Amino acid sequence: MLGKWGPSPFLVLAGAATVLGFSPFDFLPAALLGYALLIYAWMRAPNWRASALAGFWFGLGLFGAGVSWVYVSIHRFGGMPAPLAAFATLAFCAFLALFPALAGALQARVRSSAATRAVLVIPACWTLIEWIRSWILTGFPWLTAGYAAIDSPLAGFAPIGGVYLLSLATLASAGLLCCVAARQGRWIAAGLFVALGAVGAALKGIAWSEPAGPALTASLLQGNIPQDLKFDPARYARTLDTYARLAEQSRGRLIVLPETAAPRFLDQVEPEFLKKLESIARRNDGDVLLGVPLRTGPRTYFNSVISLGASPLQKYDKTHLVPFGEFIPTGFRWINSILAFPLSDFSRGDPKPAPLRVAGERVAINICYEDVFGVEIARQLPDATLLVNVSNVAWFGDSLAPRQHLQIARMRTLETGRMLLAATNSGMTAAIATDARVIAELPQFAEGKLEVSAQGYQGVTPYVRFGDWLALGASTLLILLAVLLARRASSG
After folding, report:
1. Which of 87, 121, 414, 469 fits as disulfide partner to 158, beta carbons 3.0 to 4.6 Å?
2. pLDDT, the chain, mean
3. Helix, strand, coil shares of the chain as percentages rounded to 5?
């Protein structure tokens, strides 16, 4: 596997196979095997350059297979020519592959024994680099390793340190399996593997939150508006009619419409439509949450959610915007001449928003891929009793993206101890319990409404209190421990 130029493209296949550990496949053994192969390659690499190259090959396979749906967005709906879109997608995946390369180089710089490297150093370095990927250039923490373990005993670590602590546990598990296969402290490694799972299972038994008040009926609306018609003026009236009809049929005290369900600025939306939604909400003694863009000036507009109904009018403005899709980074204005994304230069909302007080709950709103950033969701807690995500993943067609996004939303329930209601344009519209179980969901690419019993919760998980710092601190301590063990071994 190792040659003059480092690991062979065999690691591309290992990275691609690791995607099977994430939704919609949810086959954790594939992820553990993929990470174990990478760890094995790193343990055999002759120097840090070979380790970096191994990480790059693996990352190219991981992201090339796992986020290639970006092509659908920029070509089919963004209008970028196919060859250029394919190149842009490959370049994006290659950029993301630089992070595993950096993890490989970093772990190779830490002097340690092979077993210590596999179980302590590599998991810690991988976790730290994943965290860096979550914020550099606004962040893209898709396919974070911890998501693959959401249905395993290791998920008990999520309320403690979030998805990054779960990544640390997942990579440590892969490292232990690597030690077992390589006959390096086989029985000790096997015992530690079982013990790690047992600790996670025990943590899953802790109830970090408790019900707050009575449950309410919530109605989640899925209009299934084709993305290529969503912003078509000829389709506008029919879109409003679809959501008005679904709302009229709903009996939920809380009715949730998707992101940009009204595909015009709020001041351009017909007052009759807004009055109808408000009337329906009052009829149900509750509120409607409507995704709609707001503008406060000719060049200042927001991707927002407003409330209509029995409670006073409130709004949430999206804070974490998608580069190129929702804002154009400095120096890249020329991209507008290639892409045809509508409303591609939003303004950022308040980075510390307050929950909306609607339908008797305090609702923490997040829009689209904002729910990928767990520490940002946690900012609205512990005040918030319920999480609501509104999205439009029709941008990515019938790809892996919608199911991956649902898996990400499930992680937020573990981290916060709150239910999450997800209302989307074309799927996945779902209700998720505090233990990450999907209680109910609508099929993709079908119009409908999902009515569920939603329970508000109160309480504080360690993750809500400390955010990512527990995972980052644990990773740093493991690296320091490895260095200490190496020094003691060399001095002895």
Report:
1. 414
2. 92
3. 55, 15, 30
